Amino acid sequence: MMTQLPKLEDAQETFSLLDDWEDRYAYLIDLGRKLPHFPDDQKIDANIVRGCTSQVWMLLSKEKGRLSIKATSDAHIVRGLIALIIIIYGDQEIESVNDIDVDCIFSDLGLSDHLSPNRRSGFFAMVEKIKSVSPPS
Question: Do the strands 66-73 and 56-63 form a parallel or antiparallel pair, or are they unpaired?
Fold first, then answer.
């Protein structure tokens, strides 16, 4: 049974309450466990996010002018990063996607200092894929 992902403010608050990075990684992994099911038949080459070291599959769609994101990975922490991306961008109006300061959010959560360069690069590869569906602001 899938549980709902928290709102961005709640995730930020939880991160701020966790002093130890092992606890923050555990929280990320827990967020990844809450991702909605990703259909196996969609784990195809066309849905792979290029630039990620781990395998990441992402489906983006527009529903009533809002962004819908479905994604998964073969790595636990990356699934947590996907959950963060869905928390940040999911259900946003398509026109406002490029207005979100994801660099600031990433930095505020402390992720810039505690993720490997490969995971950081993969995170922003996912962000770029999302921004590609939104008209430039």
Answer: antiparallel
Query: Which pLDDT tens digit goes with each residue over 63-103?
Result: 898 999 999 999 999 999 999 999 999 989 998 999 999 99
Contact (CB, 8 A) for 105 and 88: yes
Ordered by where they begin, the domains of the chain are: 8-131 (3.90.1010.10)
Instruction: Tell me the backbone φ, ψ of residue 39, rounded to 5 degrees.
Output: -60, 135
52 is catalytic: yes
Query: Considering 31, 52, 71, 78, which one is annotated as catalytic?
Result: 52
- The pTM of this model reads 0.92
